[in-house]
Amino acid sequence: ELVRVAQKGATLIIGCDSKHGFMRLYLSEGDLDEVLAIHRTNETFCGMGPRTHVYTVSEMRDLIESAGCEVLVIASTPTFSDTIDKSLYSTDPEAWQQLKALELEICTTPELLGSGLHLLFVARKS
Fold first, then answer.
1. Maximum pairwise Cα distance, the chain
2. What are the CA-CA distances from residue 9 to residues 14, 62, 63, 65, 116 (Å)?
3. pLDDT tens-digit readout, 35-93
4. CB 113 within 8 A of CB 65
5. Whole-number Å distance between alpha carbons of 58 and 96
6. What is the spatial distance between Cα 67 and Cα 118, in angstroms, rounded to a whole number?
7. Model confidence, pTM
8. Burial 81-108 (b: 16+ CB within 10 A, else e)
């Protein structure tokens, strides 16, 4: 629907929940049953409400491209700074800045995409 109502050449920013990110989260919590359920059904609880579909990078890219858009950038949400104790860096702001810079690099490294809980796509309508 977003692509349909957008003008030709419009830049779209699309976000979705990451299948591999949620599998990683539940695996880190020791919930192997939920990891296997996500793998089997492509669904999990993402906040409030019923189970919802979670996407791989390739699945969402294919969906966006089949709707008539060119994918320009793909990124994943942070993985380190979501889980690390920021108080460890309160006495060393430079170390925290270095960690954030590394995070931004990792969030767009193709082989690591999807390790965060959300995927972000920037696309242009053809």
1. 50
2. 15, 19, 18, 14, 29
3. 999 999 999 987 777 889 999 999 999 999 999 999 999 988 876 655 566 666 667 77
4. no
5. 32
6. 21
7. 0.76
8. eeeeeeeebeeeeeebeebeeebeebbe
